[in-house]
Each structure stands twice: as C-alpha cells, then as structure tokens.
Specification:
5 helices
Length: 250
C-alpha cells in the first residue's frame, strides 16, 4: 500500500511540474521555421536592403536581451546585501533602545534627549531600509518581466528577418527543400503578438517599481535629514534607465 502511495505522489509531482507547477514563468522558445542565409548570396546586394535592415534590428534586440539578463542578475545578486542592511538597521534600533533605557535611568536630561534622538534616527533608518527592500523586490520583479519582453522582442525581430529572407527568396524563385513560404508570415504575426503582451506586462510592473522607488527615496531622505548625513545607497532603477536603449513605453 505504501509503495502505491509513493508512486501516486511521484505521478502528481511530475504532472505539476509538467503543467508549470514550479511557479516560474515559461521561457520564450525559439522560432519554428528559418530560411537559409546562405541562399541570399545568390541575390544582388541592392535587393537585400530590407533583409539587411531586419537583420540589424535583430542583432540590436539580441544585445538588449543580453543587457536585460545582466541587469536582472545584478539586482538579484544584491538582494542579500539589501536585506542584510535591513538587519543592521534593526540592530541599531535595539542598541538605541538599550541606550535610551540607560539614559532614562540616569536622570540626565542631556543624555535622555540625545538617546531619544538616536532612537528616532534609528527608527527612521529602519523604515528606510524596509522601503529599500520593497523597492529592490519590486524592481527585480519588473526586471524579470522586462527580461522576458526583450527575449520575446528578440524572437519577433528574428521572425521579421526570416520573413524578409523568405520573401526575397520567393521573389527570386529560390525555394530550398522543406521550406513552406506560407509559414513565415503567421510566425512573424504570432511573435509580434507575444512581444506586445510581454511589453504590456512589463510596463505594469515598471510603474509598481517606480512607485516603490519613490517611497524609498522619501523615507531615505527623512532618515538622512534626521541623521545629519546623506546616504549613498545605489539606485539601480535610475542607473539602468540611463543605460537602456529600449524600455517598455518608449
């Protein structure tokens, strides 16, 4: 009986994984149909302008996807640092509370005021640290969506290139074996739709991340003013926006 239960549990697990039960988004897959680049050398260069332009757009899209993947890995790798900073902020509160307790027991007004100020500063620092973690989590979520968009966009640009090549080959009566010209148009249209959907999804998360960033900046400014010193924490969303050549909404 126990053996049958084990087999049943394994079957359920395998089914969940097969149906995407792992919880992650499906990674965009490559194109189904391609047109052999080698055939284009038989066509005069002046006729290949559209295909060459499509190839250039595809190459650019590949670079953008590589950049998006690098940005995501960078922020994902920084999450442990940001969360450790939050732990440190909590320790500062605990220490400030202990110091305030000692100051209160001393009946020294100056010590009490200083201890109260230090506690307030620590509390504001913890609030800023909390908002910073939320900002990083929201921005990482956006980057994951943006990474998928750039992948879908990359395949859409590739589909445009494949369509341009097929049209050029068809116009010059070049038909390699097992190539169906009727497949290239629908493939490009399907990839365009997927890229648009991924773009819209990323755009929604981008606004969420931007809102989280503004809340962190506000909390951090208040904490800095209380501490009397300006912090210098990295702002990845601002840095990446200055670097990106393409982003949802542009």
């Amino acid at each position: 009986m126990r053996g049958h239960l084990k087999l049943f549990a394994l079957a359920v697990f395998a089914f969940a994984i097969g149906c995407g039960g792992g919880g992650g988004e499906s990674k965009p897959k490559g194109l189904k149909v391609h047109y052999d680049d080698a055939l284009l050398v038989q066509i005069p260069a002046e006729q290949r302008a559209a295909a060459d332009a499509a190839r250039t757009a595809w190459e650019k899209a590949k670079d953008e996807n590589n950049k998006a993947e690098a940005d995501y890995k960078e922020v994902d790798g920084q999450m442990s640092i940001v969360k450790n900073d939050r732990k440190s902020a909590q320790i500062k509160i605990d220490n400030a509370k202990s110091m305030k307790k000692q100051a209160d027991a001393s009946n020294d007004g100056n010590k009490q005021n200083a201890a109260q100020k230090d506690l307030r500063s620590a509390e504001l620092g913890k609030k800023a640290a909390d908002e910073r973690v939320k900002y990083y989590e929201a921005y990482r979520g956006f980057l994951k969506k943006y990474m998928k968009f750039t992948a879908e966009n990359m395949y859409w640009r590739e589909a445009q290139y494949e369509l341009a090549k097929s049209q050029l080959g068809q116009a010059n009566a070049l038909r390699p074996p097992k190539v169906n010209y009727a497949e290239f148009g629908p493939q490009e249209a399907e990839r365009a739709t997927k890229a648009q959907k991924a773009r819209d999804s990323a755009q929604n998360d981008k606004q969420h991340a931007a809102d989280a960033r503004e809340r962190w900046l506000k909390a951090q400014t208040e904490a800095d003013q209380m501490a009397g010193a300006k912090s210098n924490f990295p702002d990845p969303m601002l840095a990446h926006q200055n670097q990106q050549t393409q982003s949802p909404g542009t």
